[in-house]
Amino acid sequence: MGLSTPISLTMTLRAFLLAGLTATAPARSTLDPRQASTITVDLTKTYQTIDGFGMSETFQRANQMHALSESLQRYVLDLLFNRTSGAGFSILRNGIGSSPDSSSDHMVSIQPKNPGGPTAAPKYIWDGNDNSQVWVSTEAVKTYGVKTIYANAWSAPGYMKTNNNDANGGSLCGVTGASCSSGDWKQAYANYLVQYITYYKEIGVDVTHLGFLNEPDLTTSYASMRSNGQQAADFIKVLRPTLDKANYTNVKVTCCDAEGWSSQAGMMGSLNSVDSSLGVVTAHSYTSQPSSPINTKKPVWQTENADLQGPWATAFYSNNGAGEGLNWATKIYDALVRANASAYLYWVGVQGGATNSKLVRISDDKKQVIPSKRLWAFANWSRHVRPGAVRVGTSGGPSGARVSAFRNVDGGVAVQIIQTGSGAGSVGVKVGGGFTTGAATAWLTDNTHDCDKQTATVGSDGTVSVQVPGRSMVSVVLEPSG
Ligand SMILES: *[C@@H]1O[C@H](CO)[C@@H](O)[C@H](O)[C@H]1NC(C)=O
Ligand SMILES: *[C@@H]1O[C@H](CO)[C@@H](O)[C@H](O)[C@H]1NC(C)=O
Ligand SMILES: *[C@@H]1O[C@H](CO)[C@@H](O)[C@H](O)[C@H]1NC(C)=O
Ligand SMILES: *[C@@H]1O[C@H](CO)[C@@H](O)[C@H](O)[C@H]1NC(C)=O
């Protein structure tokens, strides 16, 4: 059985991995005692608060999930949202449609036709399905307890824009530098977005975050709308009071999902004028990766990244390819530790096709689903670093490793050790600042392990000892005693 062989539901993932992989983790006897080291966690040194980890099933990807057999539907939902058997994702990013129809992978608008101008009575249409995003959202919220739903429009409907098309760029009529003979559509677009939230509220799904742009620095053949920082600020000045008037005071406005970290940073100057109306700054990582903080006091989310073109890869580590799990564990680390991000979202969770643009692949015959190690890299973060956790300081650690730590709302401390090098060793983890270690657990992910529990020994001084193999990620979770 090769790596690319799809896993069937009748076979457990672990059995598949044991049968299918030839790489082996270093045995204990190969550990180099010189690499024994201690990580000290400093709970008094606090950084950003974490909102969570997630992905999207927009552009009709949710329809692909929904078309699976009932047992595979449950399996993929578990892989995404279950904290015991899957990634335990805590954020779902939905797409708010702007297209006049559902052909191809279009996201259909809730007002496909111009109602007769910006001040005409709206003619909304709700199909109660939203390309199966209603189903995924309901499952996420009701079955798995997901609390953060990010609804994000890629564009306004075409008739609200300078180019009369929801695709191919164009701008929202009425923002600076975008005047249209049809009038100013800012208020109509704000009303439209609020109506979308209301449709979800009516089915028991609370949208918590609302975005009105996606990659506004890119013109492309699918839904896309251009905006600079000033134009985004113009619209936020209308959107925030519209939300408040509809009693959605807790819904946070996000902006602007720019194509890269640097391009989003470049929009911040103009967004300062609406600072009090802006909830979360959102950026993608395609044209530049998060390597330093964006200059803002607002929480910043990395809302989209993926290996879009790479051939489907399931390995945790092989030759440092763009789709490998270890690479994604490291990318998440960079965003959280180097760039102060409060959330990290992959592009698509589950879909068919032969690239790494998703975490879980639906086989071509649609009878099987195959999780990649990217999913397990996310699991290592998402399962143990829960919404509300605060990043805390660390010092020390094995040579070549990236170390991070978070204090969860329940008082537990989660420490991540990503060893990108080949060196293996024993590592001690010590939490300072009045923390008394009760129980401790470690989990290992590498080529041959997925969420496998490891031995973690608590010493008399509270230091927890774990083995960290080369090319692996180890999470250690320490519960306070008492
Ligand atoms: C998550 O997975 C575990 C283990 O398979 C299972 O027992 C549990 O019921 C699942 N949780 C939900 C909410 O489905
Ligand atoms: C506004 O929302 C609050 C709770 O969020 C609720 O108690 C109140 O009844 C709502 N008011 C209206 C007018 O819907
Ligand atoms: C990190 O983000 C938080 C908000 O989540 C902000 O208050 C803080 O100033 C940021 N720190 C840096 C160094 O940018
Ligand atoms: C990473 O995730 C996999 C799956 O949950 C798990 O086996 C492994 O132990 C996890 N590692 C950490 C550090 O949580």
Automatic annotation (TrEMBL):
GO biological process, any: glucosylceramide catabolic process
Keyword field: Hydrolase, Signal
GO molecular function: glucosylceramidase activity
Pfam families registered for this protein in UniProt: Glyco_hydro_30C, Glyco_hydro_59
The Glycosyl hydrolase family 30 beta sandwich domain, residue ranges: 388-476
Signal peptide range in chain numbering: 1-27
GO cellular component terms listed in the entry, alphabetical order: membrane
Annotated family: Belongs to the glycosyl hydrolase 30 family.
Protein name, as recorded: Glycoside hydrolase family 30 protein
Organism of derivation: Lentithecium fluviatile CBS 122367
